[in-house]
Amino acid sequence: MVYLSYLLSRKMKLQNIIHFLKEDKIGRTIVFAVIVAIIALFLQSCSASIKTEKYAADFEKKKTTTLQPYTGEKQTVQVQDLKTNNELWDTWPELRDKRVGMGVANRILENFEETNRFEFTEEKEAVMNKVIDVWEKKADGLDDGKTKMEIGSLRLPKYIVYAEIYDFAVSYGEEYENGKVQKTNTTIIGIQIRMVKVDNSQVIVASGQGTATQVGEGMFRDPDMKFDGSTVGIATQRALETATENLIQRMNKYGW
């Protein structure tokens, strides 16, 4: 840098500088070193701008809800169905992975339970089994469109809940960090919850969308990866946090 500054301070013409560098090995070496340093700084700034999540999900510690704690009487709900549309089935065969149906259904029940506002018509395990049974029939192409869950036998529900995955996408990419190229995977999922009031058939609809990115190839390329620690699980939780909060706010608004 001192060498270049000296050349410029002498107000040498560009052609003279070029000629000088052609004849001067030290000059060429310094210019080359400066160019390499500039490129390195540029690549480092680019890698620093890429943010990926490398943690396993710990949802309960990351709640950002604005809802006030609930201490009133719990409302009985029946989680009736988890579905998606045929276009998503065809576009994203990853949805047919049994871990998706089980993971999303479990997250729905967990989010409802954590609000302290709801109780289920049956034990949670029984509800899960029924939801997953219907989901897997659809995933395997065995559903005739008439498959429905039966109402739980322990108590009649005040509300019936339907959930639908209305948006889904998975993508893979690469990031440059610390001189290494690492593979990344991103999941986007949108979930809609419909709550029906049994006594008058009124409906409240609430939706949420979640996105997550991690280093690695992700759940769909790793059959041993757990749902909750994957981008699918993290994105699902984010979507459901938003959807559940919107649902409860609308319930409060309409006096449910």
Give a short overview.
This protein is α/β, with parallel strands linked by helices and 256 residues long.
Which tags fit this structure?
256 residues; 2 domains; 5 strands; elongated
Give the helices and strands, then pairings.
Blueprint: H1 2-9, H2 14-23, H3 25-48, E1 75-84, H4 86-91, H5 98-114, E2 118-120, H6 124-139, E3 159-177, E4 180-197, E5 203-215, H7 231-253
Parallel strand pairs: 1-2, 1-3
Antiparallel strand pairs: 3-4, 4-5
What separation lies between the terminal Cα atoms? 72 Å
Give the total of beta strands.
5
Structural class assignment: alpha/beta
| Main sheet properties | 5 strands, mixed
The helix content is 40-55%
Q: What's the structural domain tally? A: 2
Report strand %. 15-25%
Mean pLDDT equals 78
Please give the count of helices: 7
Cα-based radius of gyration, to the nearest Å:
28 Å
Pick out the low-confidence regions. Answer: 42-61, 146-154
Shape: elongated
What string gives the helices and strands in order? HHHEHHEHEEEH
Q: How would you write the strand order of the largest sheet? A: 2-1-3-4-5
